[in-house]
């Protein structure tokens, strides 16, 4: 999985070409290749070339394409450009292709110089077609061979009867639109159909059984029930999402997310799901907890499948418990998917074994979040023990106070302590020291949120992999 996506200036669309005039300059095999593709769309294909390959001669003789037997000069092309939907340049002369391309672009007519993306305003992807289903793969002209490889891989995993499934869905579309006017609910009906036995039945050509299955789903009548999925997104690195999280991220109608859920994670949410930021920052509550609860309930009752996406695990300092209680009270169905908590993610990526058997019998997760009066109210006698590891969430702001309290309650000043900033992310930093040194290290290194404090002898057992 890729953490972040690079920008590309190419935008994929599907163009309706039936009846449209398309010009192809050139009459060799490269031109023939494109003409074949174009003819299958029902476009009116006009070739500009003094000579034609045997294949093109046949297409012209069959009336599938038309030819003007002239040189592909700028003048001859210009004469034919008005009213043209798009142009392919397939002369074997690169300089000429470039000149003709500039001419088309000056008139805003989409133009592709075959194998020369630099001078093209559109490019042709590697394509695979199964009935109405078309998959196009592009590398933006950077690596056409790679695009063709990917296409071959996709073809391998495409089920054989996909065209039948697409045809079935197309035939049922109009009737379904009348029966279920709400597009979000319609989408859910189709998802149930595809997730259940409907897909395989339609692909096998068993149209009647597929229709019965569709009717059954519609009769169930509860397609409108919304629900809430409380999902842990892990500590930030998309590699640490669970498969369940990923699936629900792909199915959700809307997503309510916190500030711990970064753009790299949101990239994996279904493109047209509505994104609602409900992040909480100390002293800057975007939406108070009761507001979030109310919003979850409102959306679910309106039939949405709402993804409540939280950093780490929803039940570890995530207020997941409160949200679920509110849902239960309101009678809203829910699902809870655990996530890798910051303690697990940070410890693993920093190489700190949280319960090394030589020194830790227990591992305690505590919050370093201050009370309203700015102090920490914790059971220090049970926390400041040498036999256990202490993991402190939200402990960055009060790190000095935390370290001081631990020393006051019996831990030595030189007791090992670490802080992990941006754990599991590319920007992760790890500082190790002692209870006495950590606050100054945090200040000197300008450590920022999110950061996790780990206290205990396990910090001395930190392991770092040698270069591979
Ligand atoms: N539910 C979350 C915790 C929410 S509290 C979980 O299970 O991880 C927020 C705190 O988690 C932050 O203040 C920080 O202490 C910690 N945290 C979350 N993600 C982190 C990360 N990537 N690196 C370091 N600390 C992190």
UniProtKB/TrEMBL annotation:
The keyword Oxidoreductase applies. Residues 228-438 form the Tetrapyrrole methylase domain. It catalyses: precorrin-2 + NAD(+) = sirohydrochlorin + NADH + 2 H(+). It holds the Pfam family TP_methylase. Residues 130-156 form the Siroheme synthase central domain. It comes from the Bacteria. Keywords: Cobalamin biosynthesis, Lyase, Methyltransferase, Multifunctional enzyme, NAD, Oxidoreductase, Porphyrin biosynthesis, S-adenosyl-L-methionine, Transferase. This is Siroheme synthase CysG. Residues 162-218 form the Sirohaem synthase dimerisation domain. Gene3D superfamilies: Cobalt-precorrin-4 Transmethylase, Domain 1 (3.40.1010.10), Methyltransferase, Cobalt-precorrin-4 Transmethylase, Domain 2 (3.30.950.10), NAD(P)-binding Rossmann-like Domain (3.40.50.720), Sirohaem synthase, dimerisation domain (1.10.8.210), Siroheme synthase, domain 2 (3.30.160.110). One of its GO terms (biological process) is methylation.
């Amino acid at each position: 999985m890729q953490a972040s996506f690079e920008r590309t200036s190419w935008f994929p669309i599907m163009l309706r070409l039936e009846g449209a005039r398309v010009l192809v300059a050139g009459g060799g095999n490269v031109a023939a290749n494109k003409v074949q593709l174009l003819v299958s769309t029902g476009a009116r294909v006009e070739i500009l070339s003094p000579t034609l390959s045997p294949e093109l001669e046949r297409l012209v003789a069959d009336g599938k394409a038309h030819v003007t037997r002239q040189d592909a000069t700028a003048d001859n092309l210009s004469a034919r450009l008005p009213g043209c939907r798009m142009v392919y340049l397939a002369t074997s002369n690169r300089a000429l292709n470039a000149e003709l391309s500039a001419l088309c672009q000056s008139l805003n007519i989409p133009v592709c110089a075959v194998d020369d993306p630099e001078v093209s305003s559109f490019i042709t992807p590697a394509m695979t077609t199964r009935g109405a289903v078309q998959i196009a793969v592009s590398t933006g002209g950077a690596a056409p061979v790679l695009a063709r490889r990917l296409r071959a891989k996709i073809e391998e995993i495409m089920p054989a009867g996909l065209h039948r499934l697409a045809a079935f869905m197309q035939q049922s579309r109009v009737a379904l639109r009348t029966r279920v006017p709400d597009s979000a609910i319609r989408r859910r009906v189709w998802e149930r159909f595809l997730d259940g036995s409907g897909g395989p039945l339609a692909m096998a050509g068993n149209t009647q059984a597929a229709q019965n299955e569709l009717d059954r789903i519609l009769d169930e009548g509860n397609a409108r029930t919304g629900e809430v999925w409380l999902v842990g997104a892990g500590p930030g690195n998309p590699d640490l999402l669970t498969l369940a999280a990923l699936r629900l991220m792909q199915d959700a109608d809307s997503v309510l997310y916190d500030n711990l859920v970064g753009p790299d994670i949101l990239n994996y949410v279904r493109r047209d799901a509505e994104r609602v930021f409900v992040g909480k920052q100390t002293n800057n509550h975007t939406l108070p907890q009761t507001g979030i609860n109310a919003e979850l309930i409102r959306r679910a009752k309106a039939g949405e499948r709402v993804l409540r996406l939280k950093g780490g695990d929803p039940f570890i300092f995530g207020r997941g418990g409160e949200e679920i209680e509110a849902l239960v009270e309101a009678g809203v169905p829910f699902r809870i998917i655990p996530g890798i908590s910051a303690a697990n993610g940070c410890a693993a990526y920093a190489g700190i074994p949280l319960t090394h058997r030589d020194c830790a019998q227990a591992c305690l997760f505590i919050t370093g979040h201050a009370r309203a009066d700015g102090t920490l109210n914790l059971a220090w006698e049970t926390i400041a023990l040498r036999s256990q590891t202490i993991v402190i969430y939200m402990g960055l702001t009060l790190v000095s106070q935390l370290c001081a309290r631990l020393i006051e309650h019996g831990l030595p000043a030189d007791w090992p302590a670490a802080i992990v900033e941006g754990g599991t992310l590319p920007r992760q930093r790890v500082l190790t020291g002692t209870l006495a040194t950590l606050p100054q290290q945090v200040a000197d290194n300008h450590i920022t949120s999110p950061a996790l404090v780990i206290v205990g002898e396990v910090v001395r057992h930190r392991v770092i992999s040698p270069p591979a």
